[in-house]
């Protein structure tokens, strides 16, 4: 067992969890440690760039650490402008020579094959995802990896059916796609980007985030194993500069980016006048609205899932809670009790609900905004979990008595921090919910069907969850209104981003 | 009938803003001359303030137009075509005055009318084309459907004073968005006459706002305004397109560009000003 894990296990023991029944949830007791085994995981000490079907060495290296322990997991290359160029031209060559000429059926078969390989090694990938990113193994194992495999499986099936997707139009691939993805769902975002791009006949240069490059690089190994023609998928690692070089590369026909609204705007500006296509999946500040006729216990579970899923590192997180006045006290009371029962600690432990914050930098960002919440007069409450000594951690946090102008209400925090406000009428809830430049997602909780249709249609956001939250599926389009992005990923609508329709 | 020459009553061309026909708040104008140099009109030269007022009117009108039934939007668009048909001679005359040949003018008017009829028929159909029920692998009912983008700012094509303008307005109207349009600088007459048609066809005030003036002066304002959701530009000038795309970044506007207007009728021009919303709900008892 790695050192960090041992410590985390020791900590859990110290909380007195070893003797309790693991299903004894209500009393808020801790569980016996149940760490996922890491002995079947193969990680190299060092990874190169995957370009043109080969592993290419770049001189500059970046270390990638386990945010839960601080230990170095591996080092990866930092691709400079020349490497970006090399990757784009490998993708171009593969597009011209093989991929664009291949029938959709054959393209699809490669993707099916990849989906199968992912399924076979899902557990290993889940463990690496958790080690590199800090998310609970329960999530990487039960949510990320199944969605990754099914995303490839879903789009594999589209590859030979593209002419049926858009009535009256013929579909043609675009060329080389440059894709830059974030650190919150590293492998899942890679799947969201790669699967539709490849199914539509494009070749790809993908850049994973600098803090979470490992699963994308391991995916490159699977792409090799699946026998993809060299250059169809190129995976280059590096920081923001590498990403910027990629999206600005003149031979990239299509840019796909998931990340902050700030960077998204820079990309839109960089691409102005170039005629190149782009899709952007950016920040959010979702409103989760609880009406007084909602099933309150379910709603509380939904609030918890909405904001504490993946430590709140979720662009569609339900980070603004609106509770109808009559039930506000009860909801907040129940929410606090539920938050006390969350298990915070070793992300590799199967009982863990709240894992590590992804990086020091992100932890600082969260702290700055939480401080702002306190300074501006909102009332802060945190649950009582003890934080591990090493690594980056933040307690589940809620703010009450928030005003619309507070920064914790306006800014995307991207951490386990919830801003709670109350409302009296549905009109007030809708107005407050829409009072944001973002428009990615939203939640509505009520037992009344007609109210659901009314409110979900009035919230200006791309994904609405009614009596649920944070659900994803390859067949379900995802993406934002307003400053949360342009374009959709997933489903039939997600194909349009990678096709020239004529 | 009197044989004496009657003095014609000339029309004053003003702006169309919030369902009314005001002069520009700036009091400015530019001269529009006909083929032989005769003054056709003192055209209102809209200011940035006029544009901002127009956006306010468009935003105010949006919930009503977006919330109108698809059937009603179709009826109103068809009504626009009807009224335009009845006034086709006036449009032909204006086109001719601005330099179009009689045959081309006739064709432009009839094509514009037919285009409006085409889009009138789309208002209650594109939703079915672009919606989907998505088979998710969990006990949820999941569907996606288009919703109107909101307020669209549009720079109409310079060359085609009526048809180009209608090809810009019709898909935006059909899809439930409201708009602020900058008419052709050199062929502005039909735009204001079309505003009269819209005004008498039950298109609610503020749903379409039409400005006349100078492109250079208004272009960046169209692209920058924070309460505009999408921008349509008809231009073949790469510098102009680059400029508006750069300025559109601040609130992440959707930017659509055409060289000479979306002249080919297509529901995909409606889709350009739609957002896809996906809704989830648990299935259970």
Structure notes:
The complex is a heterodimer of chains A (502) and B (285). Chain A is of the alpha/beta class and 502 residues long. In chain A, 38% of the residues lie in helices and 17% in strands. Chain A has helices at 3-14, 81-99, 104-120, 122-133, 137-156, 186-199, 214-225, 240-247, 261-271, 296-308, 325-340, 360-375, 407-410, 426-434, 449-458, and strands at 46-47, 49-51, 54-56, 61-65, 72-77, 171-173, 176-180, 203-207, 233-235, 254-258, 277-281, 287-290, 320-324, 379-382, 397-400, 417-423, 441-445, 463-466, 485-486, 499-501. In chain A, helix 3 (104-120) packs antiparallel against helix 5, helix 4 (122-133) crosses helix 5 (137-156) and helix 5 (137-156) runs parallel beside helix 6. Chain B has 285 residues and is of the alpha/beta class. Chain B has a single domain (39-282), classed as Aldehyde Dehydrogenase, Chain A, domain 1 (3-Layer(aba) Sandwich), CATH 3.40.605.10. In chain B, strands 7-6-5-8-9 form a five-stranded parallel β-sheet, sandwiched between helices. In chain B, strands 3-4-10 form a three-stranded antiparallel β-sheet. In chain B, helix 3 crosses helix 4 and helix 4 (102-122) runs parallel beside helix 6 (163-174). The mean pLDDT of chain B is 96. The A-B interface holds A 150, 166-169, 261, 264-265, 268-269, 271-273, 280, 282, 437, 452, 456-457, 460-468, 471, 473, 475-479, 481-483, 485-486, 488, 491-493, 501 and B 129-130, 132, 134-138, 140, 142, 144, 147, 150, 229, 238-239, 241-243, 245-246, 248-252, 254, 266-268, 275-282.
Give me the CATH fold name of the largest domain in chain A: Aldehyde Dehydrogenase, Chain A, domain 1
How many structural domains are formed by the residues of chain B?
A: 1
Ends distance of chain B: 81 Å
Radius of gyration of chain B: 20 Å
CATH class of the largest domain in chain A: Alpha Beta
Shape of chain A: globular
